[in-house]
Amino acid sequence: MRVGVHINRFDHSGGGAALGSELAAAGAAAEAAGVSWLSVMDHYFQMEFNGGAEDPMLEAYTTLAYLAGHTSTVRLGALVTGVTYRHPGLLAKIATTLDVLSGGRATLGIGAAWYDREHAGLGVPFPPLAERFERLEETLRICLQMWDPEAVGPFEGRHYRLAETLCVPAPVSSPHPEIMIGGGGEKKTLRLVAQYGDACNLFATSPEEVRHKLDVLRGHCDALGRDYDRIRKTMAYSGEAATDGDLDAFLRDIGGYTKLGIDTVILAPRLGETAAWMERFVAPATAHLAELD
Questions:
Q1: What residues contact residue 128 under an 8 Å CB cut-off, 6+ apart?
Q2: Is the whole-model pTM more than 0.70?
Q3: Is-cis flag, bond preceding 169, omega within 30?
Q4: Buried-exposed string 217-236: b where 16+ CB fall within 10 A, e elsewhere
Q5: Pairing between strand 161-162 and 155-156?
Q6: What is the largest CA-CA distance in the chain?
Q7: Which 3 state secondary structure label does DSSP give 191?
């Protein structure tokens, strides 16, 4: 099992002026610790349970581009982009740019969006849930078409119409940047993973629930003729043991997940300063999990 880190708070004690150096140090610490994945949230406002909208929040893809310039091996992505945040053609271009400039290290993390306050706050349309899922599927189809050099013609969907799906330069990743679909909805989200995704991202709620979600995903794969084993399984862990740096408690907590085929556990500490935490906690955690079969 590999380890990723999800940076989700930007309330640095030194204020906004300190965030650049902190993120650069976090990138260096992540690679020194052997972390395979580094992500940030894609939100306009900080989430209510994580400090609230008045707390600091950076724009995701600008931050990922900055991290790309301060790292060389770790995979980078948003966990996850709400489908309502950017027009799909623009999103494909942004993800491609990150992939090109990072040397093929970009993942497009995407989901159906949920945080209505930030949409209302900045005047971004927030359609009903059913429509957001329709838009999500069309966005996935648009991205795949833009990343197919043989399919540069128009796209005609219910919600989006593109006259030319050009994407030049093409991604460095082959055949395209990894698509990670976040969420555990059994009827829609996991079906979209089976049909379009290269990776899924589930919450570490309990080993029993994660096992059930993976069984549902396998069923969707069987129905669609998709090889379940070709989908990378990831899991977001936000338990207090990680935030508190309690390695023994974390290893006990994560033990129940190690036989489920999870490729990467993504630690999501609620900390504004993560570089030092990676050095003292993530490095030994990564070494221990690498030894687990």
A1: none
A2: yes
A3: yes
A4: bbebbeeeebeeeebbbbbb
A5: antiparallel
A6: 55
A7: helix
